[in-house]
């Protein structure tokens, strides 16, 4: 017997639609694959991952989410370099620090974002992806100011 995975037409957490049969996680994977061919996009890796994770908070502990939000804002608002963020985060993640909550305890809540990964991942259009990531991050920052 084969199990058939049913994928929702939109993400129950970020609201992103399927793009070429890829859910938002698959779209993120495709974006990361593009990074290897695009140094400009690779330079935005932190914003890509942080933006995605901020739009999918149900998987994280409250402490991990607060820390991510703080580093994201500090980078965007104050220009804190990625190397400094890595240094900060490595000291926070020492030992048995948990950042993910068990899958059974995750309860996604739909949030309507002005942009999602589906606005950034444009199939067969890796050109200008770095600019789209920056716009995505800026839109999330605007939403965080409101809420």
SSE map:
Layout: H1 24-35, H2 39-42, H3 45-54, H4 62-78, H5 82-92, H6 117-120, H7 129-146
Helix pairs in contact: 1-3, 3-4, 3-7
What labels describe this entry?
mainly alpha; 0% strand; 147 residues; 7 helices
Task: Describe the 3D structure.
The N and C termini lie far apart (46 Å). The chain is mostly helical and 147 residues long. Helix 1 (24-35) packs antiparallel against helix 3 (45-54), helix 3 packs across helix 4 (62-78) and helix 3 (45-54) packs across helix 7. Helices cover 52% and strands 0% of the residues. The chain has helices at residues 24-35, 39-42, 45-54, 62-78, 82-92, 117-120, 129-146. It has 7 helices and no strands. The chain has one domain.
């Amino acid at each position: 017997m084969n199990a058939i995975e049913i994928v929702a037409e939109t993400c129950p957490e970020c609201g992103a639609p399927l793009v070429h049969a890829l859910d938002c996680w698959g779209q993120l994977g495709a974006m990361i694959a593009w990074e290897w061919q695009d140094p400009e996009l690779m330079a935005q890796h932190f914003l890509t991952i942080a933006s995605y994770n901020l739009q999918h908070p149900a998987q994280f502990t409250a402490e991990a989410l607060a820390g991510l939000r703080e580093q994201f804002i500090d980078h965007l608002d104050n220009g804190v370099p990625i190397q400094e963020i890595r240094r900060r985060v490595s000291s926070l993640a020492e030992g048995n620090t948990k950042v993910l909550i068990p899958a059974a305890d995750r309860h996604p809540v739909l949030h309507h974002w002005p942009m999602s990964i589906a606005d950034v991942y444009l199939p067969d259009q890796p050109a200008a992806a770095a600019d789209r990531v920056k716009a995505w991050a800026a839109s999330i920052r605007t939403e965080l100011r409101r809420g």
